[in-house]
Amino acid sequence: MAATLRACLVALLVAAAPCFAAGPEANRYSAAVATEWFRVVLPAIQQTPGQSPPVAARTLAYLGLGLHEAIVAGIPQERSLAGQLVELESLPPAQPDDTLHWPTVANATLAALTAMLLPNAPADWKARFETLERSMPVLQPQDFDPAQRTPEVIVRSETHGRLLAMALMTWARTDGGHDVLGARRQRLDANYVAPSGPGAWVPTPPRFARPLLPHWGANRPFLATLERCRIPGPPRYDEQPGSAFHREAAEVLRVGTRPSEEERRIALYWADDPGKTPTPAGHWNWILTDLLRERRADLASAARQYAQLGIAMSDAFVATWKIKFELNLLRPVTYIQLTLDANWVPPTMETPPFPEYPSGHSVQSGAAAEVLERFYGRDTAFEDRFHNDRGWGPQRFTSFAAAAQQAAVSRLYAGIHFRSAIEHGSTLGRCIGAQALALQTR
Amino acid sequence: MRRLAVAGLASALAGSLAAAPALPHFVDETDAAGLQSRFDGDWEYMVGGGVAALDCDGSGLPSLFIAGGANRSKFYRNRSARGGALRLVAERSGLELTSTLGAYPVDLDGDGQLDLVVLRVGETVLMRGLGDCRFERANERWAFQGGNEWTTAFSAAWLDGDARPTLAFGTYIDRGRQEFPWGSCTDNVLVRPARGTDGALRFEPPQPLRPGFCALGMLFSDWNRSGRPALRITNDREYYKGGQEQLWRIAADAEPRLYGPADGWRPLQVWGMGIASTPLDDSPYPAYFLTSMADNKLQALAGDATKPAYQDIAFARGVTAHRPYAGGDVHPSTAWHAQFADVNNDGRPDLFVVKGNIGQMPDFAMLDPSNLLLGTPEGRFVEAGDAAGLRNYQRGRGGLLVDLNGDGLLDAIIVNRWDRARLWRNVGAGTAQAPAPMGHWLAVQLRQGGGNRHAVGAWLEVEAQGRVQQIEQVVGGGHASGTLGTLHVGLGDAAKARLRVRWPGNRWGSDEGVGPWFEVDADRMVIVDREKGLVPWPQP
């Protein structure tokens, strides 16, 4: 250590260049501090008001990004994502003279971000957050060696972690997705008037709810390259039998009316409804968390994977919502009642309250599969335990692509999406995942 | 003379202990001097809290204007005895205004009387100096549109030889969008002098400097010594969307233009609160200290002055000041006003940083002592605030180092939010009962004819001890706090010095606009008049 410090000082005197007289690097620790936090945050998202699927994806993205940026200085040759993401030029660097304990930094960052991203979490969950932060050294003694954690190192590490979280949140608050339950946002959404006309989306039975987050597509994305991901539109709107549009509706009617037992199971398995589950982004983060635990990943790898998965899935929602509300395409139930069966409603599940094209689940799963394939390989089989508590799991998949494909087509089985929304949505998701992976972390 | 024990790692590495800077002593004279000001208020007063120092009665001693926030601002006439205890007398001067955040003295109309630009929550007010420390509102007289913004920063320059000033104002959050302030920064504005007004000062309507990123500090400064100052703005990342620090190229006859990556400008995002500048290491080009939350930045040119590419040298110089150095609070600091000045008269700039929690932010230090960082011969700075007796653990905001009693030692003022402003007398190497000088010094006032009476934009060069110090005459910077009148120069052991002025518009390397050298005895105030040369300060 003394030699390191001396070399550091020489470098500073000669070149005024920062260097680190640090303790062990972040990749010398396990991913446990990260996976423990995600295991708590995911069910908390389920029970926190306002954490609809797009919002939950955003929450998880900032947690993953925050984790990465908190410890980036502790990962050899790792590059910060600041400077690569839209309107995020920089984040506070770790002080060169601070020896930091990276699990402590990560713990502080994730605790601070969780509190700021879920400010309206139920009180019992807030108590769990605080307990988790305090008890992490006890829960993970292998990573929280008291010999490395002198009182001063703890203070410095927690300080850096919280400062990073604060800086990240100052950026997050301006992305357009913050404060979804605030009066300003509620006013904005309440004043939204959906365009009308042939093929236009209208509220759907049985609730005829107002559209969910109609301005979400205007949010600032993480990825500067998101616009590169484009897909063809749906078939031209046509009510004539035999038209491409009509044929897709007829397929929904046929499949959605009488799904097989397996198709119905798949539809429900991937529904990932808010309030009942941690939403689609939570589902894929759950899968990642299990993989990190099974493979005994290190903290640096976990940070990288949570960040890129989170960014891909959050931007997938932004891109999806942009297209949804620009095209404003009606849902199958509306079309089918108009042209095929005036009394039809999807028997498996309710149609979500927003325009149809493209399928959000398809974009989400496509993006997630693209990211996870990069980290774990295309042909990696895995076990999905997301629904174990409901008695629906574990579910084994032969690959991430197989899981993503099943998640996408589940929306056809459910009778709530046309096929082109699913296929094009998957393509869009793949593209967004690739853009997230194009971020330079090394 | 006591010297500060420097735990200088760099020096230790070199195998010898460097000469430690001499330690000045500050004595709290807030009560004794009669200073009774508070900066209060909630949301709209979380920033600001400035002080202005100006000689408005020809005494040679600066009087004080102190912003009050929700309280009325106050004016204190300086009745200190030369070399004696500080004494301030609150007087009605016309400056008793509501909703004030800070102020900067500047002679806007070139009549020889300093005026005061008062930043407010609401209309900005230009107060015209009438003499004998009386002021009157002059917005209408000068056709100045003061707006209705949350105005938090100011700087002024005389551009391209113009006889009248160009004013820049920084604004903060849209007052109509306080329910969701993030991403709600308002435009900064540039106010140019009107043409064709037969010499009478009139201003044009404000011109937006867009985008605005919640400015908390502004400074016209000649970063490349081109003879034309550029406008540096430090912005608060807490509230902007897609913002960064800014440098505007502003000329009298051209549209303002932001420096960008193509010009070499490197993006930087900080919780920008204040700006201080000084050349370092005998460089002719100023370095800029930017206050922030946690670590502060010291930006120096990364290469030559052909492009504004800056690198951060704060850590190397020991001025990150990112956490309290005393008091036991372990959280990150929040820094506001900053000022380079020589408090121990050793001929090297020291750095004064006023700190304080925004309000009740639990993740930031509540006990956040302001810094007094003394410059060392090696170019680093070492903390001396506590040892020097300059202890302020309140929520500091604005502040100033200024010689209030004419003894050649810079005294200190800090304006605190939700608390009293405080005042310290610098007694040098002595005590309150027996002040003692530290090094030699000069107090230099610049004068020239025309509208720019104080030669704003000029550079004073003082040669002593084999070194040439360079000080830029500016209006702006700090945090909502400023002074204009005399430039203080520490001379160390030199009982004599040579000085000259590079008058506004001089380009580095050119002799045009460079005045002659004058020899001068130390420990006095002098005037350098562009036409008359060296003029003794009139005795009061």
Key traits:
heterodimer, A: 442 residues, mainly alpha, Vanadium-containing Chloroperoxidase, domain 2, 2 domains, 54% helix, B: 540 residues, mainly beta, Methylamine Dehydrogenase, Chain H, five-stranded antiparallel β-sheet, 4 helices, globular
What does this structure look like?
The complex is a heterodimer of chains A (442) and B (540). Chain A is mainly alpha-helical. Chain A folds into two domains: 18-172, Vanadium-containing Chloroperoxidase, domain 2, CATH 1.10.606.20; 196-437, Vanadium-containing Chloroperoxidase, domain 2 (Orthogonal Bundle). Chain A is 54% helix and 1% strand. Chain A is built from 15 helices and two strands. Chain A has a two-stranded antiparallel sheet with strand order 1-2. In chain A, helix 2 (32-46) runs parallel beside helix 4. Chain A is elongated. The model of chain A is unreliable at 1-21 (pLDDT under 50). By secondary structure, chain B is mainly beta. Chain B has one domain (2-536): 7 Propeller (Methylamine Dehydrogenase, Chain H), CATH 2.130.10. Chain B contains four helices and 38 strands. In chain B, a hairpin with an 8-residue loop joins strand 22 (335-341) and strand 23. Chain B starts with 8 loop residues before the first helix and ends with a strand. Residues 5-17 of chain B have low confidence and may be disordered. Chain A binds chain B through residues 6, 9-10, 12-13, 16, 18, 83, 86-93, 95-97, 112, 155, 159, 162-163, 166-167, 170-171, 173-174, 178-179, 182-184, 220, and chain B through 9-10, 13, 179-180, 182-183, 237-244, 267-269, 271, 293-295, 311, 313, 315-316, 320, 322-323, 330-332, 363.
